[in-house]
Amino acid sequence: MAVNLSTFDNSWYNPGRGFIVRTLWHFVNAVFLQSPLNPSSGLKTAVLRLFGARIGRGVVLKPSINVKYPWNLVIGDYSWIGEHAWLDSLAPITIGSNVCVSQGVYFCTGNHDWTDPAFGLIVKPIIIEDGGWVGTRATVLPGVTVKSHSIAAAGSVIAKDTEPYMIYAGNPAVAVKERKIREA
Questions:
Q1: Which residues contact 30 (CB under 8 A, 6 or more apart)?
Q2: Per-residue pLDDT tens for 90-105?
Q3: What's the whole-model pTM score?
């Protein structure tokens, strides 16, 4: 058996909005979110909300971020999204409160079934629970929950759910030590 991409069919997939809204979002995303010339978190938040994202209070959105479908995005209070983060939200992405998503992070909610000759599309949500930190250039794969206050170290590939208050590193990421937060 061989891969035959001519048989690929994702007609079952519903992106959540029609062609016109998705096209409009493509241009708005390029101008207001992806552009390094817009440093305003407030403006980015307003634009995301206008397209259906649910964004909490005090969220910091750095320049040059990319959001596939804002209607599939929830961000809790006082979370940070770093430069060049790519929120590839084919499925819902839920980011809790007080979460740090560092520079260059990739949240991948879509993948392909490599056992299927047609290379069928797979989409699964991503959840980053309160207090989590996804380090620079880390990748979080479809269906993963980064549990409360756990850390994905820089460059890690998170392919499975993490445990609360644990630090993960590597590809694939494994637990390397416990996260202890000192008293304020």
A1: none
A2: 999 999 999 999 999 9
A3: 0.96
